[in-house]
Design a protein that fits this description.
Blueprint (H helix, E strand, L loop, with lengths): L1 H4 L8 H40 L3 H24 L5 H28 L4 H24 L7 E3 L3 H17 L2 H5 L2 H17 L4 E3 L12 H16 L1 H26 L11
Antiparallel strand pairs: 1-2
Length: about 270
């Protein structure tokens, strides 16, 4: 009677059980992979802060650029492996605030703003606040604005602008060249970057660029020239590139206003 009520279960071969366990391990491993890149980005930001406290400002600036590199990898890895998760989104946002908000603000404060007193820490805080508001607005408007543009200067580009300035100043000995004007330039740059992150100017994102199999000859020549320029003086070239990008949104917004076209990143009100 017991056998009638409890029919014998189908036995699963040990090989199939082993395959299932392997698949489970692989799945969890893939989910960990994008978060490892996020952790690497967070570590570089922490390392930049530590190096700034030790007055190694060139190393601190380069660490922020490495943080940008790892931050650009985590999302792409998650999409390629189809391992996007809400945890990854929240973790990436927290890491971005540290890497592109807190770390650059502390680095430039330690480097040039501390001598300005209240004006110095106010300028650094404006940058940090702008990064926080920028990231919060990005998370809430990610499905609303045009994906071809960023609404305001993206926080990694703002961090590159600050880190590039510090790196340029250390490599080319700007404190000796411009003297007392260095803290004022750093304060203006910090405030500009912080306010530009929360503006409504459209900054090109590059996400809409189609992948092509062939490229024209002039593009190869231009890329070679750009490589030579960057390699000859990396700190100067990188700072100039991000300076141009940081004003490109305002230029494009002015062009849209002149042509009477709507702003693609300003959400429509119902």
């Amino acid at each position: 009677m017991a056998e009638e009520h409890n029919p014998p279960q189908k036995r699963v071969p040990l090989t199939e059980i082993g395959k299932r366990n392997i698949n489970i391990v692989r799945t969890h491993g893939i989910y960990v992979l994008p978060n490892l890149f996020t952790t690497a980005s967070l570590f570089c930001a922490f390392y930049a802060i530590v190096q700034a406290m030790a007055a190694h400002f060139d190393i601190a600036s380069i660490a922020i650029f490495f943080s940008m590199l790892f931050d650009g990898c985590d999302g792409r890895v998650a999409r390629l492996t189809h391992t996007q998760s809400e945890f990854g989104v929240q973790y990436d946002s927290i890491a971005d605030m540290t890497a592109f908000g807190v770390a650059p603000a502390l680095v430039i404060y330690q480097f040039a703003l501390s001598g300005l007193g209240k004006v110095g820490w106010a300028a650094a805080f404006i940058y940090c606040l702008g990064a926080a508001l920028r990231l919060a607005r990005f998370n809430t408007n990610v499905k609303v604005v045009d994906k071809s543009f960023f609404q305001g200067l993206p926080s990694p580009a703002a961090a590159a602008l600050i880190a590039g300035f510090v790196w340029l100043a250390v490599e080319n000995k700007l404190p000796e060249a411009i003297g007392d004007a260095l803290p004022l330039v750093a304060a203006v740059l910090s405030v500009y970057a912080g306010l530009t992150m929360v503006c409504n100017a459209p900054f090109f994102s590059g996400k809409s660029v189609a992948v092509v199999r062939t490229i024209p000859f002039w593009f190869v020549v231009a890329a070679a020239i750009l490589f030579i320029v960057v390699s000859s003086n990396p700190s100067l070239a990188i700072f100039v590139i991000f300076c141009i990008y940081s004003v490109s949104g305002y230029v494009y917004q002015a062009w849209l206003w002149w042509r009477g076209r709507p702003n693609p990143v300003r959400p429509e009100r119902n």
